[in-house]
Specification:
The complex is a heterodimer of chains A (324) and B (263). Chain A is an alpha/beta fold and 324 residues long. Chain A is built from twelve helices and nine strands. Chain A folds into two domains: 268 residues, Rossmann fold (3-Layer(aba) Sandwich); 48 residues. In chain A, helix 4 links the parallel strand 5 and strand 6. Chain A is globular and about 60 Å long. The chains are: A alpha/beta (324), B alpha/beta (263).
């Protein structure tokens, strides 16, 4: 039995009386974790997606961590308390806890601990779905956060009705029958009418605390890349008819000094775990890391990393791959 | 009590293991958990089951299959023989660690097939099977059906594929992706012949045949996500399953103190 393999190392963080378990993926060509010079010691930290262990769907987080480590970045996957291998009393209202930013403080504290433990210069935090909620809260609170990668985040609070089994059965029926589909479309239009009466204000069920965290992160000027998976009725960055356009709202909260990039990944689903999704995320994040956190800084790449970037780049990854 | 995570070397890979170490253990359990994408959906309840046992002085070893989760190796290159070998190696390691303590083998679905076959080889003092299937194909098929059901919700009717479409693809020699795992045609083909040993479909017959305690429990939907129940979600991952744990612990306690065939 050993806590290391050739490229991986199991670690624990036990500061503040909270024991967290994680996996460290050593950067390519490093014999020890202290070999790179300080500016190159950037960590890429993956947080749990909702209730999933730190491997994520289809072990996609393992795949990405290995890829970024192969590019020379220190990659970490960590289980937050009560998730994966990190113990905590069972919290049956965990989603509400996460949506309220419940993990933000401990995630931020553990980022600080991780940075000290592995002698890092800082970390890029990666969060998917509910993990993106925690990532935003942690990034706003953490001085060691250098950037943010968020995958299919949501900025609303799920209503109690929509958590019920009856609602889920109704959604299933609407998705699988012609009559249900027609009624669903009519319902969307009614919602759209109501939404248009509100103007550009977020709806009442918006997660306003999370939107404030976004503003704080944007104000810091941290590079942020946001990935959106296509929904059945929400192509591109546009939301489903009747739903508030949070991406447009997020961009309106950001100004010219912000480095916010939005990418739509086609041919995948919310988990990004299929071949198209995982390879697109790998490629986009690697490119984004190389621009904002080059490992061997050159004059050219330094210029790019300090440039003001505000982009909304809708790209059909499938078509892009064909071009390559 | 501590939880020690390690890598255990097997041919061509490292298995991720977690030993729930206890002071003065009264027994040891090897947990052989959910397979492939079932792991991610039921990880929390499975870990809590390990902790439940450890709290009651049972030393527990749980692990990830070769090529899955935290273990290394490429899933698409693995075979049922590899996973069978993992169980054999780990049960030997656990046996050598404290040979005087009784060893329980416990598996869920494909894990139940794996421990059933090891038990059939004479390893272990008691056997607990949760939702064993006659062969691995039945387990794979139910995972596929659940996943296809979810996929159909997310796609327009013209883009929807049925489980039959995926099965045809596998039978024609192509891999298919199921919740992020590449199922190879070889995996599908071999799953038909990876069977529960004969006589293990009924716990009374199995107990008589092996002269060691055997319990077979088919988990109800209440035990989701450890039991497959339509689409995973809605908080199943964080619900309290202590009723399931206590029922099964009671049996373990009885089985290991009064093994069949012992005075």
């Amino acid at each position: 039995m050993a806590v290391t393999t050739g490229s991986r190392e199991l670690f624990t963080l036990d500061g503040q009386g909270v024991l967290l378990k994680g996996t460290y993926h050593r950067p390519r060509q490093l014999k020890s974790s202290t070999e790179l010079s300080k500016p190159d010691r950037l960590g890429v930290l993956f947080l749990n997606s909702l209730f999933l262990p730190r491997t994520a769907t289809g072990d996609s987080a393992v795949y990405w961590a290995e890829a970024f480590a192969a590019s020379g970045y220190h990659a970490f996957r960590m289980d937050l308390p009560g998730l994966g291998d990190s113990d905590a009393p069972l919290n049956t209202a965990l989603l509400d806890f996460i949506n309220a930013g419940g993990y933000g403080a401990i995630a931020s504290a553990k980022v600080k601990e991780l940075v000290a433990r592995f002698d890092l210069d800082g970390v890029v935090i990666v969060g998917h779905c509910a993990g993106a909620v925690t990532a935003l809260h942690a990034a706003a609170a953490s001085e060691a956060c250098r950037g943010l990668v968020i995958l299919d985040p949501y900025f609303y609070l799920p209503q109690q009705l929509k958590k019920s089994k009856a609602w889920k059965r109704l959604v299933r029926w609407a998705a699988s029958s012609a009559l249900g589909g027609a009624l669903s479309t009519a319902y969307d239009r009614l919602k759209d009418l109501r939404l248009s009466l509100r103007g550009k204000r977020p709806p009442g069920n918006a997660n306003f605390a999370l939107l404030r965290r976004w503003s704080e992160v944007a104000a810091k000027g941290l590079p942020v890349i946001l990935f959106k998976a296509p929904g059945r009725k929400s192509p591109g960055t546009k939301p489903r008819v009747g739903e508030f356009n949070y991406i447009q709202h997020l961009l309106s909260l950001s100004d010219r000094k912000n480095q916010v990039e939005i990418q739509v990944i086609e041919n995948t689903d919310h988990s990004f775990a299929n071949l198209a999704g995982r390879s697109a995320i790998r490629d986009h994040v690697q490119r984004w890391l190389e621009i904002h956190f080059p490992l061997e800084p050159s004059i050219e790449s330094t210029e790019v990393s300090t440039k003001v970037v505000v982009t909304v780049n809708e790209m059909n990854y499938g078509k892009h791959a064909e071009c390559l | 009590m501590s939880e020690q995570a390690d890598y255990f070397e097997v041919p061509g890979a490292h298995l991720y293991t977690v030993l729930h170490d206890v002071a003065a253990p009264v027994a040891r359990v090897l947990l052989v958990g959910p397979f492939a994408s079932e792991r991610q959906n039921s990880y929390g309840p499975w870990v809590r089951w390990a902790r439940y046992l450890a709290d009651r002085q049972v030393e527990v070893l749980r692990y990830d299959y070769r090529g899955i989760g935290e273990s290394t190796g490429a899933f698409e290159e693995m075979t049922f023989s590899d996973w069978h070998e993992d169980v054999r190696l780990l049960s030997s390691w656990l046996n050598e660690r404290s040979p005087n303590l009784p060893l329980l083998l416990h598996g869920l679905e494909v894990g139940a097939l794996l421990v059933g076959r090891i038990f059939d080889e004479g390893i272990g003092d008691a056997l607990l099977l949760w939702s064993p299937t006659p062969n691995a194909n039945v387990a794979l098929r139910s995972t596929l059906l659940r996943w296809v059901g979810l996929e159909q919700l997310l796609r327009y009717s013209e883009d929807r594929k049925t489980a039959g479409d995926y099965i045809r693809k596998l039978e024609q020699g192509s891999s298919v992706e199921v919740e992020g795992y590449q199922w190879s045609p070889g995996l599908w083909r071999d799953s038909f012949t990876f069977e529960l040993p004969s006589g293990m479909d009924d716990e009374t017959n199995a107990t008589l045949k092996y002269e060691r305690p055997v319990k077979i429990a088919i988990l109800s939907a209440d035990a989701a996500p450890l039991a497959k129940k339509g689409i995973v979600g809605g908080g199943d991952e964080i619900k309290d399953l202590s009723w399931l744990y206590s029922d099964n612990f009671e049996w373990i306690s009885e089985a290991l103190t009064n093994p069949v065939g012992r005075a």
